[in-house]
């Protein structure tokens, strides 16, 4: 969209080029990140009798439910990456894909799966409807709310464009990043369903990271839009931060 004339280049101008090294598309990075849990959870779920001593032949209701919820979450993530998200930056250094993927492949994949599908896990016990049903409600509301915010953000940017806009709509008048708020809600639902310490640790780490991203987003909005942007009191979770 930028012409040579608009760059300020003229005859005899000097152009300096920096070699950024091997690059990889952000969309590819996201697809690879989310693929880890989608492969690891079904694999460990099916291999339970071979991985754990004295594991029952059939998984429990909560173990199956956990597999379904986590798989649905990451399938949604993959579909949003392919068909919803519009990226302001095209690529990132290729070497970073290992670091970025480790968070999902190790912590959301192998770590969660190993403890959730173990015969000694809380998920191996009978479910408590007073906990399971609220967990399901949180998950559904969180995932649908998260999708809604992603569709709102998509509408602010044209295909292939890098322009930014001020988002409005579901959750955006409450906090800076309701997409993170709804994602935290969905993971809280998964945590209640699994009642696993490993899931709880992952949720705490994920919410902490999203809070840092939300603070940066608030600062970016204020810097870019100045008086046009209505300052938010909370960046991610109303009444907390």
Automatic annotation (TrEMBL):
Residues 91-241 form the 3-oxo-5-alpha-steroid 4-dehydrogenase C-terminal domain. Keywords: Endoplasmic reticulum, Fatty acid biosynthesis, Fatty acid metabolism, Lipid biosynthesis, Lipid metabolism, Membrane, NADP, Oxidoreductase, Transmembrane, Transmembrane helix. It is found in: Endoplasmic reticulum membrane. It is a multi-pass membrane protein. It comes from the Eukaryota. GO terms for cellular component: endoplasmic reticulum membrane. It is an enzyme of class 1 (oxidoreductase). InterPro entries: 3-oxo-5_a-steroid_4-DH_C, SRD5A/TECR. It catalyses: a very-long-chain 2,3-saturated fatty acyl-CoA + NADP(+) = a very-long-chain (2E)-enoyl-CoA + NADPH + H(+). The chain crosses the membrane at residues 102-118, 188-213. Pathway: Lipid metabolism; fatty acid biosynthesis. GO terms for biological process: very long-chain fatty acid biosynthetic process. One of its GO terms (molecular function) is very-long-chain enoyl-CoA reductase activity. Its EC number is 1.3.1.93. Catalyzes the last of the four reactions of the long-chain fatty acids elongation cycle. This endoplasmic reticulum-bound enzymatic process, allows the addition of 2 carbons to the chain of long- and very long-chain fatty acids/VLCFAs per cycle. This enzyme reduces the trans-2,3-enoyl-CoA fatty acid intermediate to an acyl-CoA that can be further elongated by entering a new cycle of elongation. Thereby, it participates in the production of VLCFAs of different chain lengths that are involved in multiple biological processes as precursors of membrane lipids and lipid mediators. Belongs to the steroid 5-alpha reductase family. This is very-long-chain enoyl-CoA reductase. It comes from Cryomyces minteri.
